[in-house]
Amino acid sequence: MDRKTRILFINRWRGTIGPNVWLEQVADQCLQKGLAVHVASPWRDAFLDGLAARGAGIHVVDGIEWMPRSFNPLRHASHVWGGLHAAGDLAALARQIGAGAICFNGLNALWLPRAGRLAGVPTGVVMHGTRLAGLGACNRLFFALQSRWVSRYLTVAEISRQMLSVAGVDAEKIDVIPNGVDTERFRPTRAKTAVAKEFGIAAGSPVVGAVTHLEPRKGAHHLVAAMAQVAAAMPATRCVIVGAVTDGQDEPYAQRVREDIHRLGLTERVILAGRRTDIPKVMNAFDLVVHPSQTEACPYSVLEAQACGKAVVGFRVGGMTEVVQDGQTGVLVPPYDEAALAEAMIGLLRDPARCRRLGQAGRRRVEREFNLQVNVQKVVVWLEGLCRGAGLPS
Asked: Is pLDDT above 90 for 185?
């Protein structure tokens, strides 16, 4: 197998989160097509063991670190110093395995992409979110440095492409391929009665659901606040929040959400279901899906909800306007406006026929524009182009 069919992914994510879902989908398709997949990570965990079982090579490399969530300059100085050394280690690994390209599964690594220059191979960076967009001059400085070593950027939303362009990245280096969803696994079914019974929800009660993580930017606290208003207008309504803490430093936030539920008198109405592995079944138990995230690009959980035929309510932020067509497949409200969020939820719950129409339209759009096989195959073509020193054709 020549180097043009070997791809080294750099990954530092834990748990069932968007970037890992993307990597798993892409790695599977690459392996099926005969490309060799290698993944470098600072640890070995169950997720990586699963990729290894599929045929991927796993390499533990110390020093792989995304930029710290901190305003402490000393932490960032340490990150830069460590990144310079880790870039050398990744370059050595790329040469050792004969990689044709290095692909960073995440944007927020400033110095690590230098590994491609050191190894003499093209480097791609995948941008899953939009969180670096509001840093102004710091944003431009970040990309002025990072883009020197990046051959191609891949984003999952058009708004992310725009953000990169505003930050000074050459538009010719940026490609957009949205996430995809398995429309066979996620499809409308009649699962409400069994799931509602499991959660102790009375038959006939409207059920609002969210599939998310308990971290600040995912905005579960906004949904809890909105539910206080929904409960006042429609007391029988219940809310199920599926998701858990994925990063230990977010535990105080999760505790705040629990306290908000208690303080607002919602302990009988809002259920924190934790992590679940039967998401399609649970999703189909919801009458309406709410995605209260404060920042998004192309969220999998929204695509999955639409694939299940569910109308979606959320904030008009980031790529949500690309995934949810306001008034056609769901309802978008001004960012962080909890009263507007509650009003949209109440309006749809009181009009089940409209709620179903929006959900059915969402299902049709997902089948047409967010098909898993089609979009992942586009990513594989992009990776093959990266190995050849190119990207997707214009």
From this structure: yes
pLDDT band for position 67 (cuts 50, 70, 90)? confident
CA geometry: angle at 159 spanning 156 and 165, to 5°? 100
In a domain, 25, yes or no: yes
Residue type, 55: G
Domain membership flag for residue 114: yes
Residues 271 and 133 in one domain: no
Q: How many domains does the chain have?
A: 2
Judge if 253 and 277 occupy the same domain: yes
pLDDT at 134 over 70: no
Look at residue 382 in the predicted model and tell me its pLDDT: 96
Asked if the structure places residue 185 within a domain, the reply is: no
Q: Flag whether 379 is in a domain.
A: yes
Q: Give the mean model confidence (pLDDT) for residues 350-377.
A: 97
Q: Determine the Cα–Cα distance for residues 163 and 322; give it in Å rounded to an integer.
A: 15
Long-range contacts for 387-391 (Cβ within 8 Å, ≥24 apart)? 387/3, 387/4, 387/5, 387/6, 387/7, 387/100, 387/101, 387/122, 388/4, 389/122, 389/151, 391/151, 391/152, 391/173, 391/175
What does the radius of gyration of the chain's CA atoms come to, in whole angstroms? 21
Beta strands in 206-302 (DSSP E): 207-211, 238-242, 270-274, 288-291
Cα(40)–Cα(102) distance, integer angstroms: 10
Listed residue (313, 312, 319, 311) closest to 295, CA to CA:
319
Whole-number average pLDDT of the chain: 92
What is the distance between the terminal CA atoms of the chain, rounded to a whole angstrom?
Answer: 29
Domain at 84, CATH number: 3.40.50.2000
- Residues 62, 90: one domain? yes
Split at pLDDT 50, 70, 90, the class of 85 is confident
- Predicted local distance difference test score (pLDDT) of residue 76: 62
Which residue range(s) make up the domain with 265?
A: 192-369
Give the angle subtended at the CA of 209 by the CAs of 204 and 211, to the nearest 5°: 150
- pLDDT band for 350, please (50, 70, 90 cuts): very high
Same domain for 61 and 127, yes or no, is yes
